Amino acid sequence: MAVTEVERRRGKLAALSIAAMVILVGVPLWWKTTQTYRAWLPVAQINELAKLQLQLSADVEVVFARGTATPEQQKKVPVTQTQDEDHAVDEDTTLRYRHETRYRTATVMEEDALKQPTAAEADLSLHRLSESPCGSLVIYVIPESSSLLPENVNVYIGQRRTALLRIGAQMKVGKTLKQLLAHLEPRVKQILQVMSFSHNDITAALSDRVRFSPDNKESIADSMRAFKSSPGYEITFSLLNPDPKSHRLHWDIEGAVQTYIQPLLTKLSPVANFSLDSQILYYAMLGVNPRYDSSRSAYILNADSLAHVINPVEARLGSNAASSNPVLNFLLYVPDAHHSPLYIHDHKKREVQTNAFHSPRWGGIMVYNVNGFYQTGTNFPVDVNINMAKVMGVFLAQLRLLLGVQSTAPPSSFQVAPCGSSGLADWELDRLMWSRSVENVATATTTITSLAQLLDQIGNIVINDNIAQQVSSAVTSLQLAVAELEVGNLGFALQYSKEAILASEKAFFDPSLLHLLYFPDDQKFAIYIPLFLPMCVPILLSLLKIVSEVRQRRREKQAKKD
Amino acid sequence: MLAILLTDSAGQFFSSGHTNNWAVLVCTSRFWFNYRHVANTLSVYRSVKRLGIPDSHIVLMLADDMACNHRNPKPATVFSHKNMELNVYGDDVEVDYRGYEVTVENFLRVLTGRLPPSTPRSKRLLSDDRSNILIYLTGHGGNGFLKFQDSEEISNVELADAFEQMWQKRRYNELLFIIDTCQGASMYERFYSPNLMALASSQVGEDSLSHQPDLAIGVHLMDRYTFYLLEFLEDIHPASKTNMNDLFKVCPKSQCVSTPGHRTDLFLRDPGSVLITDFFGSVRKIEITMETINLTDPIKQMEENSGNDVQTENNTYVDQLPVSEIIHQKPKQRDWHPPDGFILGLWTLILLVFFKTYGVKHLKHVF
Description:
The complex is a heterodimer of chains A (562) and B (367).
Chain A: H1 2-33, H2 43-50, E1 52-64, H3 71-76, E2 79-90, E3 93-105, H4 108-113, H5 119-129, E4 137-142, E5 155-157, E6 162-166, H6 170-173, H7 177-195, H8 199-205, H9 217-225, E7 232-241, E8 247-250, H10 253-267, E9 273-282, E10 291-293, E11 298-301, H11 303-306, H12 310-314, E12 327-333, E13 342-344, E14 356-359, E15 363-367, E16 382-385, H13 388-403, E17 414-416, H14 426-457, H15 465-487, H16 490-508, H17 521-561
Parallel strand pairs in A: 1-3, 1-4, 4-6, 5-17, 7-9, 7-12, 8-16, 11-13, 12-15
Antiparallel strand pairs in A: 2-3, 5-6, 10-11, 14-15
Helix pairs in contact in A: 1-17, 2-14, 8-14, 10-13, 14-15, 14-16, 15-16
Chain B: H1 10-16, E1 20-27, H2 35-50, E2 58-62, E3 97-98, H3 104-112, E4 131-138, E5 141-142, E6 145-148, E7 152-155, H4 156-168, E8 174-180, E9 196-200, H5 224-234, H6 244-248, H7 253-256, E10 261-263, H8 277-280, E11 287-288, H9 323-327, H10 342-358, H11 363-366
Parallel strand pairs in B: 1-2, 1-4, 2-3, 4-8, 8-9
Antiparallel strand pairs in B: 5-6, 6-7, 9-10
Helix pairs in contact in B: 2-5
C-alpha cells in the first residue's frame, strides 16, 4: 500500500509539474511565436496632429508717401500692429490669420521711384530698390493728387509684391495717427483679400480634412478645376492634324516651350516638378460634327457638343507609363480644309475670342484656323507656320487656371497689372504657395491619422521598420511645417509640407500593409482546438482530481476532529 | 486683361461633383465552362468604352482567356448572344490583369493603391477625390464570399474594409458596385463607407442563373442579369438622361428568376437624380477659356549643340541574366519556425509521461 502511496504522490507531482510547464513556458512561447512584428509608432504625436491648429502669418508693410501723412502723424511712425482673425472650421480644425502690419514713411529713393509717369514704371523702379521676401507685401499709400493712377482706380496691384493705394485728402481722413490708421484698415484688408491668402482659398485647400459645401459657387468650381497638390506633373502638348494631305504644319514647339512656358515652370519649381513632352497626331478627328452656319460662312461648335470632343481623342493621346503623376494635356487642333474655318460658340451663342476651351483636371483644347494663310486653289499640301505666341498665350492662361492660380475678380476700383513674361505675378505665386502648403498639411495629417487608426484597428498587419521610420519623419516634417507657417516662412513651410506629404503617402501606400486575412472566430477555434484540446484535457482532469482529493482529505480531517 | 469667368458653368458642377470616371471590371473564374463570366465582363467593358471611358481609366481583370482557348471553335471571339450575333471581344480589348494575375491580393491592391512601385500606369487605379468609380464583379459566389480562381475567396468584410480605406484616402467621389454571382446581395451587406451604391443579381439564398447556351460553342454564353443589363445599356448614349431608378428595374423576377437587389442607403444623393452616364460614361465638364496672355517675346533660337561637341557617355549595360549570381545563390533566410512535428511530438511526450506515471491500467485515475 505504501508503494502505491509513493506512486500516487509521484503521479501528482508529475501532473502538477507538467501543468506548470505548460502554463509558464508553453503559453508565453505560443504567444510570442504567433505575434506579428509591429514596430513602434509615435501614436501620441499623431493624435496631437489630428487636432489641427493652423496659424498663417503674413507681414505687411504700409509706406506713407509724401503728402499722405501730416508731420505730427509722421512723428509717431514707425509703428507695428498685429491683427488676428480666428476661425473654427470644424471641431478638429481651427485657423488663425495673423497680419503684422508695419507703418513707416517712404525713403527718398522710394519717393523718386513714385515720381515715374505711369504706375507700371513706378512698380518696376520700386522693385529695383528692394525685394520683398516670400509671403510679405508692401503697400505704398499715395496722395489723392498723385497722377500715377487714373480717375476711377484707387488701387494698383503690381507684378511683384507691391501695391499702390490712393487715399482721400488729409482733411477727410483725420488728424491723429489713430484716425488715419482706422481709415486705412478696411482698404488694406481689401487689398490683402486679393493679394494674400483669403478665407475662401484656405478653406477650399482644407477640403481633404473637411467635407462641406461652401457658400460661394465660384469657389466650388475653382476647387474642382485645379489639380490636387502633387509632387510632380506631366504636361503634354499635342498637335492634331486631321488632314495632312492639305496642311503641312510646322510648329516650333521646343523654342516656344523654352521661351514661353519654361519661365513659368521655373518660377513654380518650389511648388512641383514638371516634365514636358509634345507629339503630333495625324488623322485624329474631333469626333463631333460641326454645324455649318451660312450667315458667318463658317463651321460652328456649340458649347454643348464640346463635352463629347475629348473622349474619342483621349484614347489616342497616350501618356508616360513610368510615372503616376497627373497629366495635363494641351491639344492644338487644326481643322481640315473642308471644315475650315471652325469657331467655338459659348452657351449664349457668342463667338469665343480665344477659340479654346478647357476641362477641369484634364487640360485644354484650342482650335487654330489656317484657312486665312492661303488662297483657295493653291496646290495642296500647303506649308503653314503656326504662330506659337498666340497659341502659347492661350495655353499659358489655361495652365494657370488648371494649376490653381485663382483669378477671382478683384473689386471694381482695382487695377491689376498683367502678369508679365513669366506668366505669374509674385503675389500670385505666394497665394499658390499658401494654399498648397495648407493643402499638403491637411492631406498629410489625414493620411497619417487614418493610417494610425487602420493599424490600430487591424491587429494582424505587420508594421515594418521602414514604415515606422516614414511615419516618424512625416510627423516631424508636419510639425516643422506648421511651425514655419506660424512664423511666416512660406518657402520653408512649403518645403516641409512637401516632405511630409511624400513620407506619409509612402507609408500609407506601402505594399506590405495589405491586410488580407480575415479570420472569423469559428475558424480560429477550428484551428486551435485539435492542437491544444487533446493536450490540455488530461492535464485539466488530473488537476481536478488532485483538487477533489485534497478537499476530500480535508473533510476527513474535519470529521476526525469532531 | 483679366475677364470674368463664365459662372453658369458652375451649375454643372453641382449635379454630380465628379470630374473623371474609372471602371474596375473583374471576372474571377477560370475554365472553359465559365465562358459566361468572361462574356459578362467583356460586355460591360464594351458598353463602358462605348459610352466614353478610355482604356487608360479602365482596369480589366480576366481570370482566363476564352477567346484564344483551345476549346473555342471560333478563335479570337467571345460572343454574348446566341447565333453569334455580338462579338464582345473585338480588336481593341486591353486586358490589364490576365490569367493568374487575377487574385484577391491583386484586386485589393488595385483598390487600395498599395501596389509595388514598379507597377505600370495601366495597372493602377489612379483615382482622386473627384472620381466616380464603377466596380463590376462576376463569378461564383456564396453567402458572404466570392470565389477567385477556384482556389481562394474574398469575404464581404474584406471588401467593405477595402472600400473604407479608399474612402479614408479620398480615392473616390461616388462608387457604384455591381455584382453578378449567386447570393450576390450578401457581398454588399457589410458596406459602411459613405457614397456607395450597390446592385446585385440575386438575394441571399438564391442562385443567379445563366441565360442561353449556344449549341455551336457548347457553353452558356451569358448570365441573365448581365444579359438584360447589356440590353439596357445598348439604349444609353453619351447624352442620355436616364437615371438609376431605371437601372434598378433591370431584369425583374420574371426574366431573371432570381430577385435582383440594390442598396442605396449609404448614397448621399437621391438615386433618381443620378444619371447612368455618371458611372458608365465619361461626360466631361467644359469651361470656355476667356483669357489669354499677351506674349510678345520672340522665340529663342535653340542653340545647336549637337554638332559641336560629341558627347561621349560611357554606357554600361546591366547583366541581362546574372547567371553567376543564380548559380552561387545561397538559400534565402526565412523566419525560423519550429519543426513540423513539434506539436505532435509534444503530445506524444505528454501522453507517454502520463502512461509511465500512472500505468496503462490506472488510466481510470486520470479520467
